[in-house]
């Protein structure tokens, strides 16, 4: 199987979610199912069916997280330098609007555009890989062609 690149922070967040699911959520849902069973007829017991559905979701997420963490290749950006690669925090300026944006290039399981965490497989991240400060980057986005200039690359 292919390794999944991940920052130390992304790995820790997924590990914490897995621990919470196993030590808090799983026992709570088992208790909720037991309580719902005590109410008698399960065919018309909405609490029971809701709890079973939540249990199914929790177990699926546990398996998914265990799989992702098992394949994770933790890459510490602080040990990197040079051109843009995984883990880089990149400040760009839109050449049309002069608007600055800063993104950190991370693995797909920790990506969150609202928080400035860009999936390494995204069109912008793929266009940035290998570029250096001062380079111009053309990116084909769903909204059309965009041109950016790389202002700063930081590995922290």
Give an account of the 3D structure.
The strands form two sheets. The protein has a five-stranded mixed β-sheet with strand order 5-4-3-7-6. A two-stranded parallel sheet has the order 1-2. With 156 residues, it is α/β, with parallel strands linked by helices. The model has no long low-confidence stretch (mean pLDDT 92). The chain is built from three helices and seven strands, in the order E-H-H-E-E-E-E-H-E-E. A hairpin with a 2-residue loop joins strand 6 and strand 7.
The H/E string reads EHHEEEEHEE
Q: What's the overall average pLDDT, rounded?
A: 92
The gross shape turns out to be elongated
Distance between the termini: 28 Å
Q: What share of the residues lie within helices?
A: 25-40%
Beta-sheet strand percentage?
25-35%
């Amino acid at each position: 199987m292919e390794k999944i690149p991940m920052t130390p922070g992304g790995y820790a967040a997924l590990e914490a979610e897995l621990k919470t699911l196993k030590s808090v959520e799983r026992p709570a849902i088992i208790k909720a199912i037991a309580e719902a069973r005590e109410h008698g007829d399960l065919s018309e017991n909405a609490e029971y069916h809701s709890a079973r559905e939540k249990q199914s979701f929790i177990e699926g997420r546990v398996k998914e997280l265990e799989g992702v963490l098992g394949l994770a290749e933790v890459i510490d950006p602080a040990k990197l330098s040079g051109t843009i690669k995984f883990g880089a925090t990149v400040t760009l300026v839109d050449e049309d609007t002069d608007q600055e944006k800063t993104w950190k290039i991370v693995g797909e399981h920790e990506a969150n555009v609202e928080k400035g965490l860009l999936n390494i497989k995204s069109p912008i991240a793929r266009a940035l890989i290998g570029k250096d400060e001062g380079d111009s980057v053309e990116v084909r986005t769903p909204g059309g062609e965009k041109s950016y200039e790389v202002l700063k690359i930081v590995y922290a």
